[in-house]
UniProtKB/TrEMBL annotation, chain A:
CDD domains named in the record: ABC_NikE_OppD_transporters
Superkingdom in the source lineage: Bacteria
Pfam families documented for this protein: ABC_tran
PANTHER family assigned to the protein according to its UniProt record, in alphabetical order: GLUTATHIONE IMPORT ATP-BINDING PROTEIN GSIA, TRANSPORT ATP-BINDING PROTEIN
UniProt-annotated location(s): Cell inner membrane; Membrane
Naturally occurring in which organism (per UniProt): Paracoccus sphaerophysae
Lineage: Bacteria, Pseudomonadati, Pseudomonadota, Alphaproteobacteria, Rhodobacterales
Subunit and interaction comment: The complex is composed of two ATP-binding proteins (GsiA), two transmembrane proteins (GsiC and GsiD) and a solute-binding protein (GsiB).
Topology of the protein relative to the lipid bilayer: Peripheral membrane protein
Protein name: Glutathione import ATP-binding protein GsiA
Main localization of the protein described in the UniProt heading: membrane
Known function: Part of the ABC transporter complex GsiABCD involved in glutathione import. Responsible for energy coupling to the transport system.
A GO-annotated cellular component: plasma membrane
UniProtKB/TrEMBL annotation, chain B:
A GO CC annotation given for this chain: plasma membrane
PROSITE patterns hit by this protein: ABC_TRANSPORTER_2
Mode of membrane association: Peripheral membrane protein
Pfam families recorded: ABC_tran, oligo_HPY
Keywords assigned by UniProt, alphabetized: ATP-binding, Cell membrane, Membrane, Nucleotide-binding, Transport
Protein name: Peptide ABC transporter ATP-binding protein
InterPro entries linked to this entry: AAA+_ATPase, ABC_Ni/Peptide_Import, ABC_transporter-like_ATP-bd, Oligopep_ABC_C, P-loop_NTPase
Domain of life, per lineage: Bacteria
SMART domains: AAA
A molecular function (GO) term: ATP hydrolysis activity
Domain ABC transporter: 10-259
Amino acid sequence: MSAPILEIRDLRVWFGNPPDRVDAVKGVDLTVARGESFGLVGESGSGKSTILRALAGLAPTWSGTITVDGESLRGTRRSPAFHRRVQMVFQDPYASLHPRHTVDRVLSETLRLQGMDDIDRRIGKLLDDVGLGRGFRFRYPHQLSGGQRQRVAVARALAGEPALLLLDEPTSALDVSVQAEILNLLADLRVERGLTYVMVSHDLAVIGHLCQRLAVMQGGLIVDQLTADDLRAGRADSAYTRELIAASRSYAGREA
Amino acid sequence: MTATQPGPLLSVRDLRVAFPTRQGVFEAVRGVSFDLGRERLGVVGESGSGKSMTGRAILGLVRPPGKVTASRMEFEGKSILNLPERQMRAVRGRRISMVMQDPKFSLNPVMRVGDQIVEAYRQQTGAGRAAARQRAMEMLEAVRIRDPERVFGAYPHEVSGGMGQRIMIAMMLASGPEILIADEPTSALDVSVRTEVLRIMDDLVTDRGMGLIFISHDLNLVAQFCDRVLIMYAGRVVETLAARDLHNARHPYTQGLLNSLPRLDAPRERLAVLERRPEWKDGPLDPALVDASMIDAFPGGVR
Ligand SMILES: Nc1ncnc2c1ncn2[C@@H]1O[C@H](COP(=O)(O)OP(=O)(O)OP(=O)(O)O)[C@@H](O)[C@H]1O
Ligand SMILES: Nc1ncnc2c1ncn2[C@@H]1O[C@H](COP(=O)(O)OP(=O)(O)OP(=O)(O)O)[C@@H](O)[C@H]1O
Ligand SMILES: [Mg+2]
Ligand SMILES: [Mg+2]
């Protein structure tokens, strides 16, 4: 097997200083293979977004090692090579889209930064891919619905043609038919371009559909790592994971 | 349900929200009608179909140049359509609250979370500072915030997505509104926390007769949690049904939604996607699928 695209060892992330210090991630190990799709689930507030943010250089204080495609990351500075390889879709797309930039500007800036040509055609294609269509090209964020904003964020992340895509609840604001379109698109891109995903979601069915493996978090720690098959069969080491699986089954189970 | 008052809490007929755009007037809501009793009314629908805009219109929160019209918008029998801001403020938050879809964005970024809950509560109830603080802590605990003291003193950017949702819910429920409009209130919560939060809303509906409008993309959740469901597509309600019948929906859009759900117990290679048909947007509404109130608003079908 080739070298993993992402390797995290003993990652700890904290905010502030004692006595107000918050330990958000308390020693996490993760390895994600190239071309793999990896899920991150768990309790609200358990540190899922913080792991992705530390990777992206958005968490000021962390320790441990993070290696992306052989490059060892330090602090919050990220190299141009990193930015070409890694893109992120944030949990709250409103906050991540500049309020006074149109969709067109958001996408064209990303495309130019990545040195792409043929910007016009690419923007049209991206908007079609995420099911928005070209009519949305000159809208501002406040003129979009929640799910439309989320799709702009997905389009922006795809615009850079990254090797590794960090997805924080990418479909939670979408109706399930648009969710299906985005999940199919992600699955296709993984096959066509060998993309790697790390995806956070509370929806175990979504994780089970897109991901081969997943980690379950609680209180800043990974309490379980399992395969999608384990997930479907309900095979899990920790009581917390079994509880999550049971709850998600009973609630989807009515029509089954 | 405690059906004490005659007549619905909220009655809406032919609600329309329109925005002028470069390409002409865009109607985000195109004739929505419904009554809300002391019940859990689910609203499900396409992204961009006007769910949030319907909620905002009820509370007078549609920003200009957006225009809101309706042939009726009554709260306990009195019109609240386009009320002057001063009068609307007596209703908004106090009697009708809304949990916004982007909770962290809707909070004031430079004010501590706890102070925001306290301030809102005092404004709505006239309570003293100490009582309001105590109420805020109670509410944070009720929505299962693990360390309420810390979160009370945190700024919105210092809390997680799901904590932001719970803070917003705590803030909106603190004063005991008669109607709560909850826009995707639990999409960032894990199942166990979600169960708790739903229980709080549920208790308010059953014990205190609150009316709940529950906007969600989660069909299984809506089917289990709500009493009735409105299905929206392109600004209109295309189907209304009892929540327990959701899985036997008859409108092809609703059926398409149900088919596109990924399922843990039945994995498949590709998810089914919808073939959206123009008649769902512009064709006449099917009288067998929507409430009579909808049809009343559209004599002779649709304009
Ligand atoms: N900038 C910050 N300052 C202080 N604390 C923070 C900051 N960012 C995050 N935290 C804290 O770190 C913890 C983990 O947050 P994180 O956003 O990673 O949770 P999460 O697992 O993504 O939860 P959710 O599913 O609710 O989004 C939370 O307790 C949060 O309050
Ligand atoms: N200021 C505006 N100008 C023009 N169109 C707007 C404006 N604000 C919203 N819209 C449009 O109004 C429609 C309804 O938006 P709304 O936010 O109600 O959708 P929604 O049903 O809540 O969708 P979602 O599930 O994605 O949140 C959308 O198509 C949106 O693009
Ligand atoms: Mg998060
Ligand atoms: Mg919305």
